[in-house]
Amino acid sequence: MSRTTDCLTDADMYLCMLFQTPVEVWFDGELEDSGTLIEAYSDDVIKVGGVYYLRKLCLIKKIA
Fold first, then answer.
1. Secondary element (H or E) of residue 18
2. Strands across the sheet with 45-48, in order?
């Protein structure tokens, strides 16, 4: 059973920010960052742990 859930929508991102839920950032099939918080997001980018990622190139997973 997986401990993570994919964050695909703006609502998912907003709830992670609101409840300060830690996330994982996956880029090109590899784990880039784990256990950090979403600081900001837009239609194009997401800021996690002080680093900006293009939303279309990465996968954000909420850690349950």
1. helix 10-18
2. 38-41, 45-48, 51-54
